Q: What sequence folds into this?
């Protein structure tokens, strides 16, 4: 498959199923097509159970999809590489090109902040040990955590854990950063500060950022483009301005069931096709019909 020069990840026909408690196989991703452009911040959003976390786990190689392709083309690749079915050593080589910020920071509790940030350098780089401390200091300075370098994770607030996790995610100078619900569990002020940091790092490090979130304030602060998922399918891909234009309309200006569904999600309204059993059934029929 050909990829344009400005595309770093291309997803085609992605399907992922899981077996539920009744022993039935349920599709969580149902034919996802998506291109992620080099240098952009792409927000993947949708309600609980829409498939956004599963999509993220497929993108980082944690889940193997049932069908489809996930093609990477980082700057050192002449041709795209499909990570689906790669051997572990080959997948690990690509993983060194991206960093991940998990929901809770995922710090090792037995290590100091500095030791957590140093871990990827010690395990996956050839940086001289005498240089590691310098690199760690630089990465912590970028996220305003240098003064906390000798603290243990238990001594940090939720926002500080996210910052430390982000410093570790950037330790190997990644080309792509993945964020899993970066605002989860944070108060509005701390959430806004993390969003500012994401924007700042994206600009300074020239990275591609992929952010999974259901926090609309955060999404509209950081996104260049936005993708909305529902029932494992892509409902709409567009720029932040395009989604914002839809969000600012009155309900009487909405065109069709799909726009009403997206509008309800963007506003967090309790009433609409997402929560109307009959309306949702009609929407499912619309999706199946194409």
A:
């Amino acid at each position: 498959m050909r990829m344009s020069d400005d595309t770093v990840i291309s997803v085609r026909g992605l399907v992922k199923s899981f077996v539920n408690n009744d022993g039935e196989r349920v599709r969580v991703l149902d034919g996802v097509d998506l291109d992620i452009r080099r240098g952009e911040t792409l927000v993947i959003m949708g309600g609980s159970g829409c498939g956004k976390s599963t999509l993220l786990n497929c993108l980082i190689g944690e889940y193997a999809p049932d069908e489809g392709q996930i093609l990477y083309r980082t700057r050192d690749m002449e041709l795209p590489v499909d990570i689906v079915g790669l051997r572990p050593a080959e997948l690990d080589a690509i993983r060194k090109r991206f960093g991940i910020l998990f929901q809770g920071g995922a710090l090792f509790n037995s290590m100091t902040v500095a030791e957590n940030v140093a871990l990827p350098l010690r395990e996956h780089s050839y940086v001289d040990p005498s240089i590691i401390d310098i690199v760690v200091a630089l990465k912590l300075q970028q996220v305003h955590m240098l003064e906390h370098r000798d603290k243990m994770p238990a001594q940090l607030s939720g926002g500080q854990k996210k910052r430390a996790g982000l410093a570790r995610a950037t330790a190997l100078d990644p080309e792509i950063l993945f964020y899993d619900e970066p605002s989860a569990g944070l108060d509005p002020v701390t959430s806004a500060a993390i969003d500012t940091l994401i924007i700042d790092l994206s600009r300074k490090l020239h990275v591609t950022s992929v952010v999974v979130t259901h926090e609309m304030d955060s999404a509209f602060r950081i996104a260049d483009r936005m993708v909305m998922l529902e029932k494992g399918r892509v409902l709409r891909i567009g720029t932040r301005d395009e989604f914002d234009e839809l969000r600012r309309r009155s309900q009487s200006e909405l065109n069709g069931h799909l726009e009403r569904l997206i509008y309800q999600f963007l506003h967090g309204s309790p009433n609409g096709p997402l929560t109307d059993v009959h309306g949702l059934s009609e929407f499912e029929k619309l999706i199946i019909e194409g």
The mean pLDDT is 89. Residues 110 and 152 are 7 Å apart (CA to CA).
